[in-house]
Write a structure and sequence with these properties.
The protein has 564 residues and is an alpha+beta fold. Helix content is 15%, strand content 28%. Helix 1 packs antiparallel against helix 6. The protein is flat and about 130 Å long. About 7% of the residues have low confidence.
Length: 564
C-alpha cells in the first residue's frame, strides 16, 4: 500500500513540473546582485549592487551592509546603513529596482558613475563575506567568496573573479534572480555592465509615529499633535489656540488640526497711490463690506506688497453692510509708492482675505479700482463710494483701435471694453433637472408641476404634453383609440405605431451556432500522455518482483495446458 502512496506523490509532483515549467528558488526579499572586488587599475575600485527580488516595494530603513573576513563568523564591520533624516521618514526600494553602492576610491576615479551610497574600500580580493542585515537584525542575504569562506550560504562560497570580472547573481527570467541560498550555484563570473541603476529609493513620511505601521497620511478620525503623533480629535480640535478646545470656538473655523478666524470676506476696492499734488494725507485705500452684517476691522490688517509692512486699522473701525470706507494716510500711517505695488488684506492669524492686482506707474489723480471684470485705472476716483470707470479720451481711442471684434457668443462690456460671454448662450446653459423645462421667455428652468396648475384646461380632444406643458391633439398620441386598423398582410410597428408589410420583415435563415467550450490543448494532452507513461514505468519498477513472479506463474500455467 505504501508503494501506491509514493506513486501518487510522484505523479502529482511530475504533473506540477510539466504544467509550471522549470522550478528555481526565488527570494521574497532584497538580494546581493553584483559585487566588484577591484578593477584592473585599482584593487580599491569596489562596488556592491542590491536588487529587490520581491513583488512588493520594501522598507529598507535602517538596513545595513557588513563585511567580514573569510574565517570570521561574526557579523563584521559596518560598510553603510540606509538611514533617513528623521525617525518619521521611511526609505523604500521599489520592486525590481536596484540600489548601487561604490567605494570612495571608485567615486574619485569615476565621479560620473553615480551611486546611492558611498563606502570605504575594504573588500578582500581573495576571500570574504558581505552580509545584508535588516532593521530587526535578520540576515536578509549573504555572499561569501573564496575557498576559505566557510560560512558562505550553503557552505559553498562563490568563485573568486579574475581580473576584469565581477560576481553576478544568475537571472532566471526577466525581473527574477536565482536565490537557492548556495553561493556557488547562485553566482557566476561575468563582465561588469557599462552603467548601473541608482536613485530608485523613495521616502515615505509616517504621519503617525505612535500608531502601528506606516501612515503616509493622517487616518480619518485623527489629527496631528504637531509632534508627529496622531491623536483623537476630541482631545483638542484647535492645536494653535492656547488650551484644550473640545469644540470649535464660535468665531473660528476648523482647518484640519488648526482653527482659523471665521471672518467675513470684505474686499479692497480702490487705491489712490498718486494723488494730485502732495501724496501726504491724500493717498487712500478703500475697503468694502459686501456681507449682510457689520464688520469690526479689529481682526484685519493691511500689508503693502512693495515693502511687506503691516498696518492696523484705527480702533473701533466698524464697517456697515454695503459700506465703502476709504482710509487715508492720516488715518493709517502707510505709503503707497507711485512706481508700482499692491495691497493685501489679511487676518490677524495670517489668512489672506483679499488682495489687489499690482499697479504700475499710475498717472497723477488716477485710482487703481476694482470692477466686475478685474482691476483697472480710472480718472474718476470715488472714495467712500462704488467705483466708476472713466478712462482718459486718449486711452479710449487707443483702446478702440486695438480692440478685436468679439466672438459670436460674446459682447463688449461698456465698463471695461472687454469681451464677455453672453450668459444665455445655449452652449453655456446647464440642462434642466427632471420635472423641469426651459422657459422660452427667460431661458430659465421652471417646474412643470408648479406651472401645470396655472395653465387653462386643454380643449376637448387634447391632452397636455408633460415635457413642454403644451396642449396637443390626442390623435398624435401613439396608441390612441382612433388609429385605423392595419390592412391584410400588415402589422403595427410598436416603435412608430405605423402599419408595415409583414413580408418586409427580415427573418434569420439560420440558427445560432453553438460554441463548444471544451479545450483540445495539445500541450495538455501531451502532458497527460507523458504522465501516464512515467506512472506506468515507475509502477513496473516498483512491482518488478511481483511482475516477475506473476510472469513465471503465467508461463507455468500455459506450459501445463500445453503438456496436457
Amino acid at each position: 500500500m505504501h508503494k501506491l502512496y509514493y506513486l501518487c506523490v510522484f505523479s502529482i509532483g511530475t504533473l506540477l513540473l510539466v504544467s509550471s515549467g522549470s522550478v528555481a528558488a526565488l527570494s521574497d526579499n532584497i538580494v546581493i546582485s553584483q559585487v566588484q572586488l577591484g578593477s584592473a587599475t585599482s584593487a580599491s575600485h569596489e562596488y556592491i549592487e542590491l536588487y529587490n527580488n520581491s513583488t512588493e516595494d520594501t522598507d529598507i530603513t535602517n538596513w545595513c551592509l557588513y563585511y567580514t573576513s573569510a574565517s570570521s563568523s561574526l557579523i563584521g564591520s559596518k560598510l553603510v546603513c540606509f538611514t533617513a533624516d528623521n525617525d518619521s521618514v521611511h526609505l523604500f526600494l521599489p520592486t525590481n529596482a536596484y540600489l548601487f553602492l561604490i567605494s570612495n576610491q571608485l567615486n574619485s576615479s569615476m565621479p560620473g558613475l553615480g551611486s546611492d551610497y558611498i563606502f570605504s574600500a575594504t573588500l578582500s580580493g581573495t576571500a570574504g563575506h558581505i552580509r545584508l542585515i535588516d532593521s530587526s537584525g535578520y540576515e536578509a542575504d549573504k555572499l561569501g567568496w573564496g575557498s576559505t569562506a566557510a560560512s558562505a550560504e550553503g557552505l559553498l562560497p562563490a568563485k573568486v573573479p579574475a581580473t576584469g570580472k565581477v560576481l553576478g547573481r544568475k537571472t532566471i527570467a526577466a525581473g527574477l534572480m536565482q536565490d537557492t541560498d548556495i553561493n556557488v550555484d547562485d553566482f557566476e563570473l561575468i563582465n561588469p555592465r557599462s552603467s548601473y541603476q541608482y536613485g530608485s529609493i523613495y521616502e515615505v513620511q509616517d504621519m503617525c509615529s505612535n500608531l502601528d505601521g506606516i501612515q503616509p497620511k493622517i487616518p480619518d478620525g485623527y489629527i496631528s499633535d504637531g509632534a508627529n503623533n496622531c491623536i483623537d480629535p476630541q482631545i483638542d480640535l484647535c492645536l494653535n489656540i492656547t488650551g484644550v478646545q473640545e469644540s470649535i470656538p464660535a468665531i473660528y473655523k476648523s482647518n484640519g488640526s488648526m482653527c482659523l478666524l471665521n471672518l467675513p470676506a470684505i474686499k479692497i476696492t480702490e487705491l489712490l497711490p498718486n494723488a494730485i499734488g502732495s501724496d501726504a494725507g491724500n493717498e487712500y485705500i478703500e475697503v468694502y463690506n459686501p456681507t449682510n452684517e457689520s464688520v469690526d476691522l479689529v481682526n484685519y490688517r493691511l500689508i503693502t506688497k512693495s515693502d511687506g509692512r503691516e498696518y492696523l486699522f484705527p480702533v473701533n473701525s466698524i464697517l456697515a453692510s454695503g459700506e465703502y470706507r476709504a482710509f487715508s494716510g492720516d488715518d493709517i500711517k502707510f505709503t503707497l509708492i507711485n512706481t508700482g505695488s499692491g495691497v493685501s488684506l489679511v487676518s490677524v492669524d495670517n489668512q489672506i482675505i483679499d488682495e489687489t492686482s499690482d499697479y504700475d506707474n499710475p498717472a497723477e489723480g488716477e485710482s487703481w479700482s476694482w470692477f466686475v471684470d478685474g482691476w483697472s485705472y480710472t480718472v474718476k476716483p470715488t472714495p467712500n463710494q462704488s467705483n466708476v470707470l472713466e478712462l482718459p479720451s486718449s486711452d479710449i481711442d487707443e483702446l478702440a483701435d486695438a480692440l478685436k471684434p468679439c466672438a459670436s457668443n460674446q459682447y463688449r462690456s461698456e465698463e471695461t471694453g472687454r469681451c464677455r460671454l453672453i450668459s444665455n448662450t445655449s452652449s453655456q446653459l446647464v440642462p434642466c433637472r427632471v420635472g423641469q423645462y426651459r422657459s422660452e421667455e427667460t431661458n430659465r428652468c421652471r417646474s412643470i408641476s408648479s406651472d401645470a396648475n396655472s395653465y387653462a384646461p386643454c380643449d376637448e380632444g387634447e391632452v397636455r404634453n408633460p415635457e413642454t406643458n403644451r396642449c396637443k391633439s390626442t390623435n398624435a398620441v401613439l396608441g390612441a383609440s382612433s388609429l385605423t386598423a392595419c390592412k391584410a398582410g400588415q402589422e403595427r410597428n410598436p416603435a412608430t405605431n405605423r402599419c408595415r408589410n409583414i413580408s418586409n420583415i427580415k427573418k434569420l435563415d439560420y440558427a445560432p451556432e453553438q460554441v463548444d467550450g471544451s479545450s483540445n490543448s495539445p500541450i495538455m494532452l501531451i502532458s497527460i500522455f507523458t504522465l501516464g507513461i512515467i506512472a506506468l514505468a515507475y509502477a513496473a519498477w516498483e512491482w518488478k518482483v511481483e511482475i516477475n513472479s506473476l510472469t513465471r506463474r503465467l508461463f507455468g500455467f500455459i506450459k501445463s495446458l500445453y503438456n496436457h
